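Section 5.1 Outputs to date
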Amino acid sequence: MRKLSYFIAASIDGFIGAPDGEADFFSKLVTGDFLEYLRDECPDTLPTAARRAFGVEDVQNSRYDTVIQGRASYDLALKAGITSPYAHLREYVVSTSLKESPDANVRIVSGDVVAAVQELKKQDGLDIYLCGGANLAGQLIGEVDELVIKTYPAVLGSGMPMFAAPFQVSDFSLESVRSFDNGVVVQQYSR
């Protein structure tokens, strides 16, 4: 069965962005051996434009073949004029307000997102990349099989949490920790 992997950037204090979701401030830390890690080991998770910029747009997907994201995350791409931010993956956007997809590669999920992900997990293929945001991650916490948290050496004080969900303990086991020369730490957890 395919896994749902929440591969997310976060601050030291656990926020994935400013209160409005903006997270461009993390970009300045995509340097050095961390940049090499993303480019060489995680190209599936890079937006198509970043894959092109890093010279890996033709690299075959090895880990993920599907991405699911919330409407607010997708809107960041739409505001930049990009209708298919992960064109190298099958794209799903969860939205109750977006009735029609602006791109043939993007499928809209407007009903039961948990059931939709459970169905995706049953299909053949590589794993599913949960891109964000907090509301979608909160809805899907029971389906998340793996967390990959890229912790950036910054404290935000407040902002968008990793999961916008009611209090409930969900246990995960630490699988690996890797640190980089710019202070970023990547932790991988399994349910």
